Amino acid sequence: MCSVIGYYGDHTAAPILIKCLKKMEYRGYDSVGISTRHDNAIITKKKTGMVSEVNKTMKLYKLPGKIGIGHTRWATHGNVTDINAHPHVSNSGRISVVHNGIIENYIEIRNNLIEIGYKFYSDTDSEVIANLLQYNFEKTPNIKKSIMNTVIKLRGQYAFITIFENKLLAVRYHRPLIIGLKDNDRFISSDIFGVSTEIDKVIHLEDRSFSILDKKQIHSYGFDGHLIKYTMTNIKRGISTISKKNYEHFTLKEIFEQPESLLQIDVKSISELSRIASKIKRLYIIGSGTSYNVALIAKYLIGKYCGKIVEAIVSEEFTIFPNMDKDSAVIAISQSGETADVIDAIDIAIRENIHAYAILNVPTSLLAMKCDSVAKINCGLEIGVAATKSFTSQIASIYIFVEKIIRRKLIDLPHTSKLISRILDNELEIINISQVLKNTLNIYVLGKGIHYPIASECALKLKELSKIHAESMFGGELKHGAFTLINNNTYIIVINPQDETYEDMIISVNEIKSRGAKIIGVSNTRSKLYDYWIRIPNSSDETVFPLIEMVPLQLLAYYLSIEKNLDPDHPKNLAKSVTVK
Ligand code: G6P
């Protein structure tokens, strides 16, 4: 989603803002902009494109001033154009705003301001914030009051940073925002990772609060004006540094980190979650995107082994279910802990007095703060927009969750880690298959039972990374309709390890083959029915297959993006954390 950043300190702001924006680009990257304040005036430069590109063409780094704000955008209101890029400056030119979130009633506010003579230049909802602040400041020239009078009019979920005269403002209503500090430097950021190398202390702002910063002081208040005294915490540096190491892309680095990241899971926090959840009758597992695919796996595993009533629900679709009562709990699965659809679903659970738990990767996230119990997958920072290593760690955490309930071992993580390393050693075979598929427009991915969510995740990765339209289906479902689309040029990936699903899938593969399609089998055994074979290692224990079979498919989606000259770290129109509805 959009990233917002602010700096006030001893150094020239622009180069620091650019450095941080580059790190946060995974949140949204269709346009970039910076405002700085110098000699009592605000200077703004902004344009569509990625940070490095815009920095070069617009010479953002040359902007003078030791106070500044910056933004990378993921468009919600208004097309991707230079004028819609942030920051947005008020008509007086004295207030500049960068915003993440949505102002739902912006049209009404804009019309009211137009009636009294204000001019608007963009199609965004964000521009109203700058002008409303100006309007309120002109009525009551007090910064604190102007903010209070502004936020009372805004409807929606947002966070914004503002250069307001010689102050920097951080305003948070239900969207992430932190303040970071080191020596005389103050940062405001939507993401701790963007500033983690620049700061040593952090303040996590509360919802419905704002802070007014200058070089000497930080004053924080609730939206109703009450003073808030925050405690600062020292920042912990995670296992991943923000570097691609020797890899071409973050996505590839993260795929290759899986043998290690899998072993970082915080088993203690998962055991604690299991202990609590074991007493609950009905579990609703929610997630979006990749995390929803893990929710489907969780439904399968918890249902099979624990005998509980489990529903897997896409977070966006989570509304109150008729059977939800005190004996129900919601478990949110989320890498970022920031996804708006997930947060909204958890808010519903909290409102209804239902237990709310989470399995996540970012322990400081909004979701972590809201939930009664949080299990941590600890896979380290994931920068690539398409989730990879978080997926395997999430699945492993579900296995551990189940193991603790049934008091029986299901998987051996160190052994699984070795199997994943062996898959990664076969990278070349995957590169060869990506060359075969690079001109394909549509792919079906088939899975049965617990392998269906893997098929679904594979289809998602193919869409995200390689821009190939891919559709997941249950093994035998093709014959109920999609057969009509099959011909000699159709490629079908089948997830077909040797377990209880194997024979049934082979029946489906035979039917498909006789209609001319080409089969790419993902299996531990080669079948003569496969035109191409994606080999996964043999294992005496078939429960391990769902944990390892996505790894070669992640590589396939990655290499297809390379074959097609796409940027796998920044797929078009996507963002890592979707913090708006
Ligand atoms: C976005 C990302 C996906 C991710 C989904 C859920 O759409 O592009 O890769 O799976 O959000 O994210 P979460 O952080 O909640 O797991």
Give the helix/strand layout.
Elements: E1 3-8, H1 13-24, E2 31-38, E3 41-48, H2 51-58, E4 67-73, E5 88-89, E6 95-103, H3 106-115, H4 127-139, H5 143-151, E7 156-164, E8 167-173, E9 178-182, E10 185-189, H6 192-195, E11 201-204, E12 209-213, E13 218-222, E14 233-234, H7 250-256, H8 258-261, H9 267-277, E15 282-287, H10 290-306, E16 309-314, E17 328-334, H11 340-351, E18 355-360, H12 366-370, E19 373-376, H13 389-406, H14 413-425, H15 427-437, E20 442-447, H16 452-466, E21 469-474, E22 491-495, H17 502-513, E23 518-523, E24 532-535, H18 545-548, H19 550-563
Parallel strand pairs: 15-16, 15-17, 17-18, 18-19, 20-21, 20-22, 22-23, 23-24
Antiparallel strand pairs: 1-4, 1-10, 2-3, 2-4, 5-6, 6-7, 7-8, 8-12, 9-10, 9-11, 11-14, 12-13
Helix pairs in contact: 3-4, 4-5, 9-13, 10-13, 10-16, 15-19, 16-19
Question: Keywords, please?
Answer:
single chain; 581 residues; alpha/beta; Glutamine Phosphoribosylpyrophosphate, subunit 1, domain 1; Rossmann fold; eight-stranded antiparallel beta sheet; 24 strands; globular; binds 6-O-phosphono-alpha-D-glucopyranose
How would you describe the overall organization of this protein?
By secondary structure, the protein is an alpha/beta fold. The protein folds into three domains: 3-239, Aminohydrolase, N-terminal nucleophile (Ntn) domain (Glutamine Phosphoribosylpyrophosphate, subunit 1, domain 1, 4-Layer Sandwich); 245-410, 3-Layer(aba) Sandwich (Rossmann fold), CATH 3.40.50; 425-568, Glucose-6-phosphate isomerase like protein, domain 1 (Rossmann fold, 3-Layer(aba) Sandwich), CATH 3.40.50.10490. 34% of the residues lie in helices and 24% in strands. It contains 19 helices and 24 strands. The strands form four sheets. An eight-stranded antiparallel sheet has the order 3-2-4-1-10-9-11-14. The longest helix has 18 residues, at 389-406. The protein is globular and about 75 Å long. The protein starts with a strand and ends in an 18-residue tail after the last helix. It binds 6-O-phosphono-alpha-D-glucopyranose (G6P). Residues 288-291, 334-336, 339, 342, 385-387, 574, 576-578 line the site of 6-O-phosphono-alpha-D-glucopyranose (G6P).
